[in-house]
């Protein structure tokens, strides 16, 4: 097994997370990767960035950083599936999709309205307790999972175009063109794999510091992105007048911090490097 060079961990407020308890818990795991939730005596953690992306902890060889922000743990969450990806029955989806997601894919605090996908089955968090709070699912969180499946229209085709502001230049080979393949792989497909809410023409979708405008939908009434939705990102990056731009900046400033476009580009480059033949590091 590859030894991790660096590792970031996020402490949950359900445990004291002292240094010795953290090191003991990390050493007990055969392998670690971003998104994993692990717990043991005195410690409960969610694994953050790993270098390389998969490996084991070795005290004295792995540099460990404990994130400053302690993640709050929900007492209860209520999760429902989307009807168009409903699979077998509620118990099956709980055991084979919801629980595995919360054990291996959490990346930060969320609240009601949060969408996620696990192995092509889509879900939405419809309630949390304490109500309206932000948090994560921990070992003691009670997960409710029954209720009417969420109905939505599924798009056949979605066309979006990015705004110039915030878009790194290498996604624009020329002033009149876009690198559609790179935008799809680095921004759009990863985003819509985890987001299921309905969209309409004219909506603006912020993704890691880059804003995309919905230019057209099929059907025209709008809908959510599904497994077979064709996503198109062609044309010219949009400009907006200074008044609209300033209003958008003020709105964004009120929200929680999001990763920058540079971090997305770096992550994409790391994924491509990890997939090169002859690389001894396992890929995601």
Give a quick set of tags describing it.
14 strands, single chain, 5 helices, disordered C terminus, four-stranded mixed beta sheet, alpha+beta, 284 residues, globular
Main beta sheet:
4 strands, mixed
Detail the poorly predicted runs: 251-267, 269-284
Q: What is the strand arrangement across the widest sheet?
A: 3-4-1-6
Going by helix content, strand content and strand pairing, the class is alpha+beta
Q: Helical content, roughly?
A: 10-25%
- How far from one another are the termini? 14 Å
Total helices: the number is: 5
Q: Can you count the beta strands?
A: 14
Question: Which band does the percent of strand residues land in?
Answer: 25-35%
- Nearest-angstrom radius of gyration? 20 Å
Succession of helices and strands: EHEEEEEEHEEEEHEEEHH
The 3D shape can be described as: globular
Average pLDDT level: 89
């Amino acid at each position: 097994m590859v030894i991790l060079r660096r590792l970031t961990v996020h402490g949950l407020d359900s445990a004291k997370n002292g240094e010795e308890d953290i090191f003991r818990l990390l050493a007990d795991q055969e392998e670690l990767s971003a998104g994993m939730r692990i717990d043991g005596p005195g410690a409960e953690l969610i694994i953050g960035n790993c270098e390389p992306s998969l490996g084991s902890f070795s005290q004295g060889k792995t540099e460990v950083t404990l994130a400053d922000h302690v993640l709050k743990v929900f007492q209860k969450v209520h999760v429902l599936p989307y009807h168009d990806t409903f699979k077998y029955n509620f118990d099956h989806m709980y055991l084979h999709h919801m629980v595995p997601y919360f054990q291996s894919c959490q990346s930060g605090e969320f609240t009601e309205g949060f969408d996620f996908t696990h192995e092509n089955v889509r879900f939405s968090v419809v309630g949390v307790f304490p109500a309206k709070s932000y948090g994560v699912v921990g070992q003691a969180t009670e997960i409710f999972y029954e209720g009417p499946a969420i109905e939505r229209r599924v798009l056949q085709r979605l066309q979006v175009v990015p705004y110039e502001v915030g878009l790194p230049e290498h996604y624009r080979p020329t002033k009149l063109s876009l690198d559609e393949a790179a935008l799809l792989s680095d921004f759009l497909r990863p985003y819509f794999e985890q987001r299921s809410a309905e969209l309409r023409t004219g909506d603006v979708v912020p993704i890691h510091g880059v804003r995309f405008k919905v230019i057209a939908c099929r059907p025209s009434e709008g809908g959510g992105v599904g497994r077979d939705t064709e996503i198109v990102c062609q044309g010219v990056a949009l400009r907006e007048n200074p008044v609209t731009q300033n209003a958008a900046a003020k709105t964004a400033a009120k929200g929680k911090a999001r990763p920058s476009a540079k971090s997305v580009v770096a992550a994409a480059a790391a994924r491509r490097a990890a997939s090169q033949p002859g690389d001894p590091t396992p890929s995601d």
